[in-house]
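Section 5: illustrative case.
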């Protein structure tokens, strides 16, 4: 009986540790995405109208046209 309770307690601790590990990992990914987005926003603010900012990342490519005439960012 004592062994069963200890085994179940161990499983609960392991499951809790796994959930905590996954939660911390997902928070880190969210924070990293926020840092990348903020960095791109800061760089775009410094560019003159008509400029194009292209950033290549592991997850894809970001292309921003600053003050492009006749185009709307929402139209794409």
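Designed sequence:
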């Amino acid at each position: 009986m004592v062994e069963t309770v200890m085994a179940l307690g161990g499983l609960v601790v392991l499951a809790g540790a796994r959930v905590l590990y996954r939660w911390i990992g997902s928070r880190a990914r969210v924070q990293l995405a926020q840092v990348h987005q903020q960095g791109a926003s800061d760089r775009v603010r410094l560019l003159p109208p008509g400029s194009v900012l292209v950033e290549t990342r592991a997850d894809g490519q970001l292309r921003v046209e600053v003050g492009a005439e006749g185009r709307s960012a929402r139209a794409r």
